[in-house]
Amino acid sequence: MILPESTAAPLRGGPLLNWGVLAPGGIATDWVAAMHAHTDQRVVAVASRSAERAAEFAQKNGIERSYGSYEQLAADPAVDIIYIAAPNVFHRPLALLAIAAGKHVLIEKPLGIDAADAQVIVAAARAAGVFAMEAMWTRFLPQTTIIAQLLAAGDLGDLKIVTADFGANFGDPAGQPVFDPAMGGGSLRDIGIYPVWFSRFALGAPNSLAATGRMLASGVDGQAAMILGHASGAQSVLHTTMLADTPTEARINGTRARVEVRTPFYAPHGFAVVRDEERTEFTDGTGLRGREGLAFQTTAIAHHIAAGRTEAPEHPLDVSIEILETLDTLRAQVEAG
């Protein structure tokens, strides 16, 4: 089988943006490192509620300016777009702050703490005419752009079953926002969004949802097993947990062929298309692995903004809202026991 070419935006060359970062933490550290190492995009400013923390992050990451308030960064005329890397509960207020300042925004997953939050952000961005996107970086990987073309061409036949799991042992809950309900924590919001997104990517929005799981003493969902039904009759069988490491594999199974995405399915690596006795492999030739793959979405966004777009056609805002609606229902089922 001859696979289509990747349509991922080139990592080098092309339009450039001056980025600002709100809330320097673990994901922001990896995101800045990936972008600076593998693209021509640059972060020019960072802000934290602690001026000292912002200054330390700037010094470690080669960033020109640091601010001790989010408002100062939002007012910086040199900043084109703001990446919001704060805990989930802060996505809405920080996104609205950036949008009100006329900045484009890239907001970490999930877009909001729930679908209602996301709808407010989307309405504000559309009214302001700025670019806005949820940071679903997996959608912009070379492997994903190829799988998207296989799906669009019907090369897998009629899709019947999609499977995906994401589990990681988060260890000691102390000090981790993911274990704190006041921070919008929980396995579904933090990592369960990846298998739910993968299901949506392959099969579209579900028309039936069933979930069971485990609530933790802190008041957040620790793990969940999910079955999603789709209008075509296909099903998605998904799992997430922050209590143990799992294979983090994904499969799309059709009547003509199946796609097996290598672990971890959410990061750059590769996949195989299996059809009868034939196995066709794709390996990401960029050499980027793990969170280095965060770089791909940044160059894609730069191209979209240069083209005058206010949303990414690969991952539109309405899809982010739909995914949060699904997560809201699944989480409610787990909470209800």
Protein architecture, described:
Helix 4 links the parallel strand 4 and strand 5. The chain has two domains: 18-137, NAD(P)-binding Rossmann-like Domain (Rossmann fold); 143-285 and 315-336, Dihydrodipicolinate Reductase, domain 2. An eight-stranded mixed sheet has the order 8-9-10-7-11-12-13-14, covered by helices on one side. Helix 5 packs antiparallel against helix 9. The chain is globular, with a radius of gyration of 19 Å. The model has no long low-confidence stretch (mean pLDDT 97). The longest helix is centred in the C-terminal third of the chain and has 20 residues, at 317-336. It has nine helices and 14 strands. It has helices at residues 26-38, 51-61, 70-74, 91-100, 115-128, 142-153, 187-203, 295-306, 317-336; strands at residues 18-22, 42-47, 65-67, 81-84, 104-107, 132-134, 159-167, 208-215, 221-229, 235-241, 250-254, 258-261, 270-275, 278-283. Helix content is 34%, strand content 23%. With 337 residues, it is of the alpha/beta class. It starts with 17 loop residues before the first strand and ends with a helix.
